[in-house]
Amino acid sequence: MLKKNDVGPQTYRDAMARFAGAVHVITTEGPAGRRGTTVIAACSVSDAPPTVLVCLNRENAKNDTFIKNGNFALNTLASDQQALAEAFSGQTGLPAEERFSVAEWDKISTGAPTLLSGLAVFDCEIIDTKDHATHRILFGEVKGIRIGDAPHPLMYFERGYRFF
Predict the structure, then answer these.
(1) pLDDT tens digits for 10-62?
(2) Shortest CA distance to 148 belongs to which of 122, 125, 118, 114?
(3) CA-CA distances (angstroms) from residue 58 to 105, 119, 122?
């Protein structure tokens, strides 16, 4: 006999806290302006064509900037970049535009800001989106890549940053 258990919002969040994830800063720039935010929910979709996906909270209207610009860079953070993750998550109280001053950026292909010191950078053109519950999934075809020299990723686990 199957045993059912409570899968309410808090139980789900508690279980997801044990789901370790790499920390990224997703950025965009274009006619709608410049924006960046810290994310954990990102992964590879395909290598032919190279495609990644990122989940953004769609209840934050500022995240519409990504759709309006049609691009994003998924900047994977190294273990020594916790301050950058905190700045782009809003934890430091830095105004949105000043967050970019915490690191050095350039552009590879789409016009989105790309982190010079990232562990890996995926510069993407948005090819599709899907709304589900509170989030919007952005599918990005990778148009440019940078692989950094840092040996270890910044991870998020049990509601805190971890270094592996």
Answers:
(1) 888 888 888 889 999 999 999 999 999 999 999 999 999 999 999 999 999 99
(2) 118
(3) 26, 27, 22
- Cα 139 to Cα 71: distance, rounded to the nearest angstrom: 10
Dist. CA 126–CA 71, nearest whole Å: 5
In the chain, DSSP assigns E strands to 21-22, 24-30, 33-39, 42-47, 50-57, 71-76, 105-107, 113-115, 120-132, 135-147, 154-157, 160-163
pTM: 0.93
159: left (phi over 0), alpha (psi -120 to 50) or beta: left
Cα 33–Cα 46–Cα 35 angle in degrees, nearest 5: 15
Q: Is the per-residue pLDDT at 73 higher than 90?
A: yes
